[in-house]
């Protein structure tokens, strides 16, 4: 059973791992008590910033390549290694396998040893979200855990190692679906004292009351999605639309397989994975 | 040592203004790797090449395009892109406030501390008011030519500004189908509830250490000295057995543990 999906060199810089690949980001086992639930991980966030492509003089989409300055040769994935700079300009090479084997056995699974009130975790910790989908063999246990957590309003806490990094996660259940939010460790966060913020002095009651009034008069129950619109991208799309009317501004090249919308793909993959249709592991 | 402010701005709620400094809330503790070529073990560089010929295309000849459909690009000039940038401003505009639970964990992205810039009364009074009212403000501002949305919240006596993801950047669970599979039985639900209740507690961030990071650093230091540190063998474990049996066993073993403690 693969604990880690091999990640191929992607064509474009894609820090979220939501490229066109339909493989799960990671496959592993979620456990609570002695019950284990094999799961697949998929990113729950996607980069929405309108991707601008770099094009050549003829309008051909360019590829980003790594090269070695000394020999001026372009490098393929198998001609590159990962190095750690232990002294200025000096590197020690590390392999994926070594990193994998450094993980203590207990950390290779997401072992839920603690459940907490889901509203009790300070949001300063939250980093990135991943949906967990059940494996064909684990649907029953998955649904049981998801339903129980949702009813009780609980989030599960665990640490585990994925792709050469240890993660602290909080697992939430919403709409019958489990979602892991990776969290920053305590030592990755500053305290007000670290920042050097001044100690609080007594403030005039009237000033507090003034702000309380301002807050309550502007309070809403829900967050309106319009507040979260990406206006810059919208402006860009408007400009694109305007310009596309003039043929002078448009270049066409023979299409590669890649489509611009990885967005649809990720949703499709998630849907399939939740429907238990895709046997993603044995692919 | 006090941190240095990365930006200065002014919180604006209606006609009220609170001048603030912005500080990063996170510390980078990651072990960083570099990509090296396998022959000289030197840092690799990146360039853009034409896929057909493999020839490098120099920066000044690169055009930017937005793909409207596969293989079809609308060309955009740098000047045009610059015009899309928002107006620079020092204002952090707070237009509305919501209860904390109205913001799903999925939206939070990166935390910043705000510190008072001059007037401390307004700063600490606003934090106190946010605490009393149990609200978070929805903030909009422009920093370094980029527009941001954030949540303004109090943490203890201080103000935090956590950037929020844009509407399109979050996939909501309610837009996905419920997972397939048989619904759990009442008996299973009862046992699972018992199990999670026994494991219930409080989240204490200090209880968790990134042990793996420490192991990796130690391993790398040893390897750099030419030693061959020992590694574990990766074993895979766990088989799927009957759910009922596992639930019952889990509850029983937890009970035993509690009694012994």
Question: Outline of this structure?
Answer:
The complex is a heterodimer of chains A (about 280) and B (about 260). Chain A is α+β, with helices and mostly antiparallel strands and about 280 residues long. Chain A contains 6 helices and 14 strands.
Structural summary, described in words:
The complex is a heterodimer of chains A (283) and B (261). The termini of chain A are close together. With 283 residues, chain A is an alpha+beta fold. Chain A is extended. In chain A, a hairpin with a 4-residue loop joins β4 and β5. Chain A has helices at 96-102, 139-152, 192-195, 205-217, 231-244, 262-274, and strands at 26-32, 35-43, 52-55, 63-68, 73-75, 80-87, 90-94, 110-112, 114-117, 126-134, 154-162, 165-174, 177-183, 250-252. In chain A, the strands form three sheets. In chain A, strands 8-1-2-10-13-12-11-9 form an eight-stranded mixed sheet. In chain A, strands 4-5 form a two-stranded antiparallel sheet. A two-stranded antiparallel sheet of chain A has the order 6-7. Helix content of chain A is 23%, strand content 31%. Chain B has 261 residues and is an alpha+beta fold. A seven-stranded mixed barrel of chain B has the order 1-2-8-11-10-9-7. In chain B, strands 5-6 form a two-stranded antiparallel ribbon. Chain B is extended, with a radius of gyration of 27 Å. The two termini of chain B are 43 Å apart. The model of chain B has no long low-confidence stretch (mean pLDDT 90). Classes of the chains: A alpha+beta (283), B alpha+beta (261). At the A-B interface, β1, β2, β3, β4 and β6 of A face β2, β3, β4, β5 and β6 of B.
